[in-house]
Amino acid sequence: MTCVNCNRRGVTIKTTIGFQLPANQAELEAVFGKFAFHHLTEPLGSIEIDAPWPAKNIVAIHHPILPRQVEIHRFIAGPFRDAISRIAYACPDYKIVTCTGFVPRHKMHDPAKGLSLHSWGAAFDLNPSTNKYGQRDHDLPETLIKIFEERGFEWGGRWSTPDPMHFQAAKGGA
Ligand SMILES: [Zn+2]
After folding, report:
1. What is the pLDDT of residues 90-139, one digit of tens each?
2. Rounded CA Rg of the chain
3. How far is CA 122 from the centre of its chain?
4. Assessment of whether the complete model's pTM goes beyond 0.90
5. Centroid of ligand 1 to alpha carbon of 47 (angstroms)
6. Ligand 1 centre from 5 Cα, in Å?
């Protein structure tokens, strides 16, 4: 079959995450790869991943309902793109103002903590201004959450310390 997104023949794009969600750093590296990095002084907790890992693994997703391209790991590009296409029809009134995936940094921008899943492009944040870390309140339609969860993403809004902006291709403790 021909994929309408990449126009390459013989390529079948997976529309659900096709692996067990990694549950710790070792599993994360086994699935998404290992990279070398160095710390940046600004903004606090940021890192820069050394070549060639980002160019080999991070892809840009474009869609009319996304305000700008979203950079994520190539292994979850299929399910992410499929979810966004579904959401465009299923949640026509919900406006995505910001969506950021790949941002190499430590968790909570704290250099003392481990690396965030965003460093692998294995997570993305939707509309952080209305879906704030630590709050149960959020403005995401239930249908939107369901569409991502059905494709295998974990939603941070279900955690004991909720992070409703956050979706990831890993288990909570990773
Ligand atoms: Zn996040």
Report:
1. 999 999 999 999 999 999 899 999 999 999 999 999 999 999 999 999 99
2. 16
3. 5
4. yes
5. 16
6. 26
